[in-house]
Amino acid sequence: MKLAAVDIGSNAIRFQVSSVLTRNDRVLFKKLEYIRFPLRLGHDVFATGSISKQSMSRFIKLMRAYKLLIELYEVDDYMFCATSAMRESENGQELVRRVEDELGIVINVIDGNLEAQLINQAIGSYLGDETYLHIDVGGGSTELNLYVSGKKIKTRSFKIGSVRILEQTDSPVMWNDMEQWVRRNVKPEYGKVTAVGTGGNISKVFELAQLKPGKLLSLRKIHQIRKMIEQYSIEDRIYQLQMNPDRADVIVPATHIYTKVMEWANAKNILVPEVGLKDGIILYLYERNTRQKRLEFDKK
């Protein structure tokens, strides 16, 4: 079985094709293709409230390219999901209709809670029975999920993201709301809290920390790496630290979100699994094809 996922984010649009391999009772997902295209929809939306004509044109070209790849890989099932930039855009639904009319592609514009639900599917295998605060930072929103004794007990999406901060459209009220949510819900009786970080920026910080996969990244080390990155110009971050251009300018504001949430939760370390929304979509598609599991957008 081959499955494809398209994550239409605020900072980039990710495409992944995975092959499902089964042996006995074990299921493995082998990545066949991964493309990250830096079409920053959030740059338009968070600054002007809508997607520009130029970005709309490029977006349709990109969707056409992804559709061709899906056909070439002979994918059995696929899903396109769009997050905060698309759902907040004044002309987002117009663009969604154009893509469906011109290409026959249905784009699911999902809310923050459903986004978190899909990502949670991907990180589940990394968690034990301890207390975890999952922090997923995107370009337009941050999703927080609290796990206690192996169960998710609280979830919340906030309109705070790396591109919003870059565009200076983040709200002090929302920052305060997020702080109060963390302080109110991460209770002392839950014991030691370990953060779990997903998103391209925390993955890059983990890479710069030169840790082995599965090792915990300390809050102190994140501060050190952020301070180091700040000493480089955007150009030097690209050429010396080998960052993508659309990563080089958002990594500092994104890191600020992770560290603030960790400080509020009194989390000294963070686990950084290499998974995200696209991986959650792949898992959902697998379950849909094997167990006929349904999420909210299947009922529409």
What keyword list fits this structure?
single chain, 300 residues, alpha/beta, Nucleotidyltransferase, domain 5, five-stranded mixed beta sheet, 11 strands
Describe this structure in words.
- The chain is of the alpha/beta class.
- It has helices at 41-48, 53-72, 84-88, 92-103, 112-123, 162-166, 172-185, 200-209, 219-230, 234-239, 245-248, 251-265, 277-290, and strands at residues 2-8, 13-23, 26-37, 77-82, 107-109, 131-137, 142-148, 151-158, 193-198, 217-218, 269-271.
- It has a six-stranded mixed β-sheet, with helices on both faces. A five-stranded mixed β-sheet has the order 3-2-1-4-5, with helices on both faces.
- The radius of gyration is 19 Å and the shape is globular.
- The protein starts with a strand and ends in a 10-residue tail after the last helix.
- 45% of the residues are buried.
- The mean pLDDT is 92.
What is this structure, in a nutshell?
The protein is α/β, with parallel strands linked by helices.
